[in-house]
Write a structure and sequence with these properties.
- Helices cover 39% and strands 22% of the residues.
- It has helices at 3-18, 21-55, 130-135, 147-155, 184-188, 193-205, 233-243, and strands at 58-66, 71-80, 87-95, 99-104, 110-115, 120-124, 158-159, 166-169, 172-173.
- The strands form 3 sheets. It has a 3-stranded antiparallel beta sheet with strand order 1-2-3.
- Strand 2 (71-80) and strand 3 (87-95) form a beta hairpin.
- The chain is elongated.
- The chain binds zinc ion.
- Zinc ion binds next to loops.
């Protein structure tokens, strides 16, 4: 606790003891300075603590995507905030002509890719892009692939107010990977649903480079018909130039 605070307390004791008005003022002044210093110290302490916590953040993420008719890609992202270059990307390209069969396991949470050379690859539904991927398995190459399972899985999805896709499962959208708004957040975070939706739409539809046109298309999921874009195209471009270009 800051020293002026104690000096203030000392001042109060003295003023009570000697009945001196000047000492009483000294107490008030020093206490005020003490409280300001206490407030600043707590803010600084929290900021450095947050910095320390963020530096410890690390994760490994997998994203699977059909890139062309001939192949798909599994992107491994290794993030460690403590490194000078926190992101390390590793792409594995898999060509369909090397694949003999694609099947679901019994739990329908993993996709099993069997290669012609007998190797095997398991793709769990925890990989980002998994739900879009299972819709894009080329059935002309794998006619036994169980599309009924895919259809049944897709029946579980609900609409996402952010990106328009009917792709929400367990409060997470499997198209834009945003969390569904929860009403308790307005109390906890002090913000409104409309502001959350606008912010996430700006971020999701933002373009990576100047001159790139906006893309609202959906690859695998159906569109929610009553979906509303809550920001203008100009606002998306302004946001993009501010954060990405
Ligand atoms: Zn979404």
């Amino acid at each position: 606790m800051p020293i002026p605070f104690f000096v203030g307390i000392g001042g109060l004791c003295m003023s009570l003891f000697v009945g001196n008005r000047a000492v009483l003022w000294n107490f008030a002044l020093m206490s005020a300075i003490g409280l300001v210093l206490l407030f600043l110290w707590r803010r600084l302490y929290r900021a450095t603590r947050l910095e320390r916590v963020l530096k410890k953040v690390s994760y490994i993420n997998y994203f699977i995507e059909v890139e062309t008719e001939k192949h798909f890609c599994i992107r491994r992202t290794d993030f460690d905030a403590a490194r000078e270059n926190p992101y390390i990307f590793e792409d594995r390209l898999i060509y369909w002509h090397h694949v003999k069969d694609v099947t679901f396991d019994n739990t329908i949470t993993n996709l099993r890719v069997l290669f012609k050379n007998k190797e095997e690859l398991i793709l769990p539904n925890t990989y980002d892009g998994w739900y879009a991927f299972i819709k894009q398995v080329p059935i002309e190459l794998f006619p036994d692939f169980d599309t009924k399972i895919v259809d049944d899985l897709y029946k579980q999805f609900e609409a996402c107010k952010i990106c328009s896709a009917i792709a929400v499962l367990d409060k997470v959208c499997h198209n834009c990977y945003n969390d569904v708004w929860e009403t308790s957040w307005s109390k906890e975070e002090g913000c409104l649903e409309i502001d959350y939706l606008k912010e996430e739409q700006l971020s999701y539809f933002a373009t990576a480079e100047e001159g790139e046109s906006l893309d609202f298309s959906l690859v695998a999921f159906d569109r929610f018909t009553d979906w509303e874009l809550l920001v203008s195209e100009d606002e998306i471009l302004k946001y993009s130039s501010e954060f990405f270009w």
